[in-house]
Write a structure and sequence with these properties.
about 200 residues; alpha/beta; Rossmann fold; 4-stranded mixed beta sheet; 14 strands; about 20% helix; about 30% strand; transferase; Imidazole-glycPsynth_HisH
């Protein structure tokens, strides 16, 4: 069975992500320091809240450099995905820098509420095993006020007053802006794909 490390970065969704993994038959280890990453074959970084506080917690846990140097597949969920990028406008904070791009505040407009909350459709941008088995017009559940730009690493985007990255992959680094643990079959499939897919 795959050894999965689930990082406790202070996000309120830790328990629900763990439960979603249990439904897939995976008993993830909760990790709060660098030593906990040893032996992990997959690492999951969930997060709910603000980027500055999450980065401060990762620094206090001694996890920033180990995550930057990680040589096994990593997926960030919601705020966890945003932390994979270079910088966030939220608190003007430096993030992990594993993916190029700056996370920016979403702009409210007529009919466009921020934060972005609820179900929205995924727009595939390129092939990736992360999307294997998903139906056309698959939807996922989002709750966020900041978003990463669409880049060459974007696997799927979402439109809420403009396109933003919903699913991302660059080598071993993956991310989902939505909440897989709250996205029914779509979320379960993305998590299963991450756990089972082959990486370069």
């Amino acid at each position: 069975m795959t050894d999965v490390a689930l990082i406790d970065a202070g996000g309120a969704n830790l328990g629900s992500v763990r439960y979603a993994l249990e439904r897939l038959g995976v008993d993830a280890r909760v990790v709060r320091d660098a030593a906990g990453l040893q032996g992990a074959q997959r690492v999951i970084l969930p997060g709910v809240g603000a980027a500055p506080e999450a980065m401060s917690r990762l620094r206090a846990q001694g996890l920033v450099e180990p995550l930057r140097e990680l040589q096994v597949p990593l997926i960030g969920i919601c705020l966890g995905m945003q932390l994979l990028f270079e910088h966030s406008e939220e608190g003007d904070v430096e993030c992990l820098g594993l993916l190029p791009g700056i996370v920016r505040h979403m702009t409210p407009a007529l009919g466009i509420r921020v934060p972005h909350m609820g179900w929205n459709q995924l727009v595939p941008m390129r092939d990736s095993a992360l999307l294997a088995g998903l139906p056309e017009r698959a939807s996922a559940y989002f709750v966020h006020g900041y978003a990463a730009p669409v880049t060459a690493d974007t696997v799927a985007a979402c439109d809420h007053g403009g396109l933003f990255t919903a699913v991302v992959q660059n080598g071993l680094r993956c991310g989902a802006q939505f909440h897989p643990e709250r996205s029914a079959d779509t979320g379960a499939r993305i998590l299963r794909n991450f756990l089972e897919m082959s990486f370069p």
